[in-house]
Design brief:
The protein is mainly α. About 80% of the residues lie in helices and about 0% in strands. It contains 18 helices and no strands. The chain has helices at about 5-10, 15-20, 25-55, 60-75, 85-100, 105-110, 115-140, 145-155, 160-170, 170-200, 205-215, 220-230, 230-245, 250-260, 275-290, 295-320, 325, 330-355. α3 (about 25-55) packs across α16 and α7 runs antiparallel to α18. It starts with a helix and ends in a 7-residue tail after the last helix.
Length: about 350
């Protein structure tokens, strides 16, 4: 088996070499068997953190999963037999989770927010993403690191980090750092946005717009909106948040195009896809949700599957993190996360004060 085949199968080079001499059917069977132990471990943890999240709603299952992976990797030796399945979960399973996220986004529902809210959402994502990239360069940070932070803070938290990781192929340490920062600042945003909405006397429309357009994770949006009043406010906040989620596809596709355009190609090498396949799948799922052909109970079940896939993938990513390497990142990612949070809140406040918030 050559190096290209090894990469496609997402298996370790020693295993690929060992399988090279095996007959075709035996090789496929061996690959399947070697994946199952690691996949089983990731799936078990994914189920466990989802169960924990249902008992303690304030906990982010994805954060708990990635932290569990980090602790396990740095405290307990990981058996080599688990590595192929862990690698598969960190790549393929993660991308399937991002694809299924598209079923939570409906174009008619987003349009129903009104043109003002769509302007706020578009500006919040675009300005935050671009300014975070610029500040990351100014801070002389690693390009993959500030790109992941820009995606997570401007679009939809850990899911956007996962989507961007599938395009730029950043290391597990950088993905873990970006996810941790998103959850840290997003958690701080829960009391901050709810408190500011009450302090400024915002109605349900403006308060929902503020929370949905500036808070990083969907779960954090639900928590903040519940504190702020729930009901119609919660509905607006979640819909605004999903409007931000819908912008993940064009942002990730744009980054992919820019990276591929600037990359040096080896003669005879296959040209990279203009858009990652999982992003195409994400767009297709948005279209399916918009048509309205999927029954609500099925959508609810798919949402649980999507959360399970992302939680399992986050645990796998955590297992790729070595604390010593993570500590070398320094204070600059923390400062960049603070900068991105301030920028997105400033943009959203500006839009609300201009009268562009949701009218309900």
């Amino acid at each position: 088996m050559d190096n290209q085949s090894s990469e496609v199968l997402d298996i370790e080079p020693p295993l690929a070499a060992e399988l090279a001499d095996a007959p075709g059917p035996d090789r496929r069977s061996r690959v399947s068997r070697d994946f199952w132990p690691g996949l089983g471990l990731c799936a078990a943890v994914g189920l466990a953190v989802l169960a924990l999240g249902s008992v303690v709603p304030s906990l982010s299952p994805m954060l708990v999963a990635i932290l569990a992976g980090i602790v396990l990797r740095n405290v307990v030796p990981i058996h080599a037999a688990l590595e192929p399945g862990i690698a598969l979960a960190a790549k393929r399973v993660l991308r399937w989770g991002v694809v299924l996220l598209g079923l939570q986004v409906s174009i008619p529902t987003i349009i129903g927010l009104g043109p003002g809210v769509l302007v706020i959402v578009t500006c919040a994502v675009a300005i935050t993403f671009c300014s975070t990239l610029a500040m990351g360069r100014l801070l002389r940070m690693d390009r993959d690191m500030y790109t992941l932070i820009a995606a997570g803070f401007s679009i939809c938290g850990a899911a956007a980090v996962a989507g961007m990781q599938g395009t730029i192929r950043a290391s597990e340490e950088k993905v873990a750092a970006a996810v941790a920062l998103v959850v840290l600042y997003g958690t701080l945003m829960i009391p901050a946005t709810a408190g500011l909405a009450a302090l400024l006397g915002f109605g349900p429309g403006d308060a929902g717009t503020l929370i949905g357009a500036s808070t990083h994770e969907v779960a954090q949006v639900v928590a903040a909106a519940g504190i702020a009043g729930g009901g119609p406010l919660l509905a607006v906040a979640v819909t605004v948040k999903l409007a931000r989620v819908s912008l993940m596809a064009p942002v990730v596709a744009g980054v992919s195009l820019l990276r591929n355009h600037g990359a040096t190609r080896v003669p005879g090498q296959k040209r990279p896809a203009l858009m990652p396949l999982f992003v195409v799948g994400f767009i297709v799922m948005i279209l399916v949700a918009s048509i309205g052909i999927v029954p609500a109970p099925v959508l609810g079940g798919v949402k649980l599957v999507q959360q399970f896939l992302l939680a399992s993938a986050m645990f796998a990513l955590g297992l790729g993190v070595h604390v010593k390497s993570l500590m070398k990142l320094g204070a600059r990612p923390v400062l960049l996360g603070l900068f991105a949070t301030v920028v997105i809140m400033a943009v959203v406040f500006a839009g609300i004060f201009l009268g562009l918030g949701a009218n309900i």
